[in-house]
Amino acid sequence: MIPELLSALPLTLGIMFVAMIVGFFLALIATALRVRRVALISSLVDLYVSYARSVPVVLQLFVAFYGLPLITDHLGYADFFTANVAAMIGLSLYHGGYLSEVMRPAFLAVERGQHDAADSMGYSFWQKMKRIVGPQALHFALPGYGNAIIYLIHNVALVMYIGAADVMATAHLIMERDYNQYQFGTYLVLAVLYSLLCGVAWLIIRYFEQRHAKYSSKSAARVKFTSV
């Protein structure tokens, strides 16, 4: 069964990476609008984040799968919307909302004096984020970001409920074909596969945490030496 399961792995990884990238940029935009408190827009973004965090992920996938075609059909793109596209959109919206709740506390954890110093130097909001606040907020956000990635990997398994032929859906087809004779073995292979994906994600995030910690310590030592 392993070759059949691995044949569906590219689709699973594709959905995961699209949701990871799109969700990251959605989280950046949502966080920026929430911390700046733009009238009405920030309230709508708060509503989006609340939806992403409060509604079960499988229900969000159903909303994307059955709701978005009502819009695309009127625009003349009925054939464009498939289960795979719905899975990418639903998981991207979920990941973006969840990740915004990781980024916003990290932004607020940076000392207020850092914000005031950047403002006094005439930095724009985006310059302040890039040069001063962003690198410091990254230190606080990395652990939570790692958890968000692992949760996303777990939730990719739910796309089978809207008809996406991912690894989990392929496993169920294999079990039905074999009259459910090898359920334990199939689920065990799936458990190992998802564990490996989560392990790789954890190692990557751990690498960036250690690298950022070394960079922060060197920067702090440089600042201390310069001040002396």
Question: Overview of this structure, please?
Answer:
The protein is an all-alpha fold. The protein has one domain: MetI-like (MetI-like fold). Helices cover 83% and strands 0% of the residues. The protein contains 10 helices and no strands. The chain has helices at 2-7, 9-36, 41-54, 57-67, 69-75, 83-109, 112-120, 125-156, 167-177, 183-227. α7 (112-120) packs across α8 (125-156), α8 (125-156) runs antiparallel to α10 and α9 (167-177) runs antiparallel to α10 (183-227). The chain is globular, with a radius of gyration of 21 Å. Mean pLDDT is 83; it is low at 218-228.
Q: How many extended strands?
A: 0
Structural class: mainly alpha
Major sheet attributes: none
Q: What is the general shape?
A: globular
CATH class: Mainly Alpha
Strand percentage lies at under 5%
Number of helices: 10
Q: Could you report the average pLDDT, rounded to the nearest whole number?
A: 83
CATH architecture: Orthogonal Bundle
In oligomeric terms, what are we looking at? single chain
N-to-C CA distance: 65 Å
Low-confidence stretches: 218-228
The CATH H-level homologous superfamily: MetI-like
The whole-angstrom Rg is 21 Å
| Helix share, percent | over 70%
Name the helix and strand elements from N-terminus to C-terminus, one letter apiece: HHHHHHHHHH
Give the number of domains: 1
- Per CATH, what is the topology? MetI-like fold
SSE diagram, text form:
Elements (H helix, E strand, L loop, with lengths): L1 H6 L1 H28 L4 H14 L2 H11 L1 H7 L7 H27 L2 H9 L4 H32 L10 H11 L5 H45 L1
